[in-house]
Specification:
It is a single chain. The protein is mainly alpha-helical. 50% of the residues lie in helices and 6% in strands. A hairpin with a 5-residue loop joins strand 1 and strand 2.
Length: 283
């Protein structure tokens, strides 16, 4: 069964963007009113490499897979180093997974067993024959979980810093790349100091790999980071529910953004006036 599975073709439909793309309902000026979770039960927006800051790519490559552009999907050096570290620690301390292997893991969700690890490596080799390095990198950056039901670097940039991924500084990029290592433990809202320590490690790796200078690393380490407040409620609930009710389910799956006719600033003003009038009528 295991041997037979190695010869099954990779299902290209599993690498489509629709499974991680959530549906956003916006007002007429582009303000976010409501975000409907994707089929992965999370928030995500698929973006191209042009829409992602080079700081993110540099931080990812330096931290997760420094030889990404030189290996065929599996890095024997990284695997040997991980095996030695695990042997010394007496436990699983490092996996030695490449970015390509992590893409396979995010798509297929294998169990953490030796057999599945071998299958993961084999599928990674085959994925490298099916996609270019940049396409694989894009799969990773758009699929990797960043905690708080958020998938992909652009959704994470908006959630934690309220800006697109293209505008992330070195410090912000290093901070975000610190999260996927363990999204639950590295939740910025609950363990900010822990993520900051991991950010320092990412900056050190970027400097060691020649992605940034010593001065840039020092400045990034000192840059203050202020997290945006987590979004828990959505705006204009009755209106956005109406929009979803009149939109067929089949059409929703092919959409990422819906620009509505509502002007939320006008809506908010009307609500305040109405509440004030109702309070006056109570007398």
């Amino acid at each position: 069964m295991f041997i037979a599975s190695l010869f099954i073709s990779l299902d290209q439909s599993l690498f489509h963007s629709s499974d991680i793309t959530s549906l956003r309902i916006l007002d007429r000026h582009g303000a976010l009113l409501r975000e409907v979770l994707s089929s992965e039960e999370g928030k995500g927006r698929w973006c191209s490499l042009k829409e992602i800051s080079p700081n993110i790519v540099n931080a990812l490559d330096a931290t997760e897979d420094a030889r990404f552009y030189r290996h065929p999907g599996v890095d024997p050096i990284a695997l040997a180093r991980a095996a030695w570290q695990n042997l010394r620690a007496g436990r699983i301390a490092s996996g030695g997974s490449t970015i390509t292997m992590q893409v396979i893991r995010n798509v297929y969700r294998p169990r953490r067993t030796l057999t599945e690890k071998i299958r993961e490596a084999w599928y990674a080799l085959r994925l490298e024959r099916m996609m270019s390095k940049d396409e694989i990198l894009l799969q990773y950056l758009n699929r990797v979980p960043f905690g708080n039901q958020t998938f992909g670097i652009d959704a994470a940039a908006w959630l934690y810093f309220e800006k697109p991924a293209a505008q992330l500084s070195i410090a912000e990029a290093a901070f975000l790349i610190a999260i996927p290592n363990s999204p639950a433990l590295n939740d910025p809202y609950r363990h900010f100091t822990r993520v900051r320590r991991r950010q320092t490690y990412v900056l050190d790796r970027m400097e060691q790999e020649g992605r940034i200078s010593n001065a840039e690393s020092a400045r990034a380490a000192e840059e203050p980071l202020v997290l945006a407040p987590g979004r828990t409620q959505f705006k204009a609930p009755h209106f956005t529910t109406m929009v979803l009710n009149i939109l067929p389910e089949a059409e929703r799956q092919n959409l990422a953004d819906i620009y509505s006719t509502l002007d939320y600033n006008v809506q908010k003003t009307c609500e305040l006036l109405l509440k004030a009038h109702l309070a006056h009528l109570k007398k």
